[in-house]
Amino acid sequence: MADVKGKRRYNAxxxxxxxxxxxxxxxxxxxxxxNRGGYAGTTVAAVAGEAGVSVETVYKxxxxxxxxxxxxxxxxxxxxxxVSAYMRSDAMRERESEPAAVLREWGLLTAExxxxxxxxxxxxxxxxxxxxxxxxxxxxxxxDRLRRMRHHARYLxxxxxxxxxxxxxx
Length: 170
Hints:
By secondary structure, the chain is mostly helical. It is built from 7 helices and no strands.
């Protein structure tokens, strides 16, 4: 007997879009909760309730409260533009060879990203005093930040400046 129905491909785009919306709602709720209650005063259950998702959804997407803070930091580090600050930095570095212009552009990106990232960094620093996960996250982020700073210093020390082949370095 022949198969009357042909094989259909599964289209997961609706599910992926819902996951993207859930993730955005969770991060917005987490940001509000953390700004109101601080790290210790925020629970995953409160974030899930405000976002309209289950607690399990938050844990699956972010792995817990420290994962939420990391995701907020990374989202803010990407900047406010439709193109991430990392990509804009790389594109600028490819088109600019004058160190003063490179520093000016990096300064603009730093001002944009700094105003978004600083509240999250301050939250991490306060929470790291009593929470080992936050202390480890802060150490990880500091290590990455210093690596990027060294990369930029090496780039500017070259004559003429040229790409060092390091990805995701604003």
